[in-house]
Give the backbone structure.
Amino acid sequence: MGKQKEVGTGSPSGRQSTKRTPKSISRQFDLRDEIYARSQVDTSQPPTPYTFDSNSLLNNLPGIAYRCRNDSNWTMEYVSRGCTQLTGYQPEDLIKNHTISFESLIHPDDRQDVRQKVEQTLAENKPFDIIYRIRTRSGSTKWVREMGHALSNHHREPLLEGFITDITEGKNNEQRLINQMERFLALRRIDMAINASLDLRVTLDILLDQVMLLLHVDAADVLLFNPITQMLEYSNGKYRFTEITLHPHVTVKTQQEIELARQILQDAHDNCLISNSIVAQVKLFPDIRVAAE
C-alpha cells in the first residue's frame, strides 16, 4: 500500500493549501495535551513551610543584638555576631564575662551616666535610648547608640535586651561642625575686641579666654620675649580654677635626705610658673620615702 501524505490543492488565489493527514492531526493533539499538563500546578502535596531563623537575621545586622543581666557588669547572656566588627571581641568573650565584661568596654567617663539613665527609664517602665562611648579591643574609641528595654522575669534577676549600633562617623561629623563654629566665633570675638579697645591687656584677656575655650584647657599664659635679657617674661594669664593640688612622689637613699628633698620641693613650688602667673592656691603634698635596700 502507498504511504499517506499531505496533498496540496489549488486555491482561488493561486496559493497551495495543505491537507493534513490523520497521523499529523494526532501528533498535534498529543502536544497540546502535554503543554496543558505541564501548565497545571500540582496541589496534591502541601507547600513546604518557611522556617524563620532569628539567629541568622540577628547575626547579619550591623551592630550588636544582646540580652544581658541588669547587674554591675551588664553580664551578657546572648550577643550577636556583629559584636566582633563593633568591639573587636568575639561574642564568646563577652558572654558570662568570659574574657571581659561589657561594663569594662564602656568609656570610664560614661559608665556612671549610662547606668543612671538606664535605671531611671526602667523605674519609669519605659524603654531606654542612650548614647555613649566604648573602648574597642584595639584601644580605639567609638560612639554607640543603645536602645533596649527590660524583660518581664519573675523567677530570676531582671534581664535587658536591645540593640547597639555604631554612630562614630555621625558623631565625628557633628564635632567637626561644632569645632568650625567655635573657631569662627572665637575669631569674631577677638576681632571685635581689637577694634573696640586700645588697651592691650583687655585684648589679651579676651584672646586668652578664646584660646582656653578652643583648646579645652583650664589656664593659659602670654609670655613675651625680652631682647635685652634674652628671656621669656610673663605678660598675662587666665585660669578657670582656684586650687591646684600637687602630689609628687620622691625616693631618697637615706633618712637624712628626706628634709632636704622636702625643702627642694618647697622651693620649686614657691618659684614655679604656676604660682607666679596664676592667682590660685597651690597645695603641695609630697610623698618622700627612703629606698628599700
Remarks:
- The chain has three domains: 55-166, 173-224, 243-290.
- The radius of gyration is 41 Å.
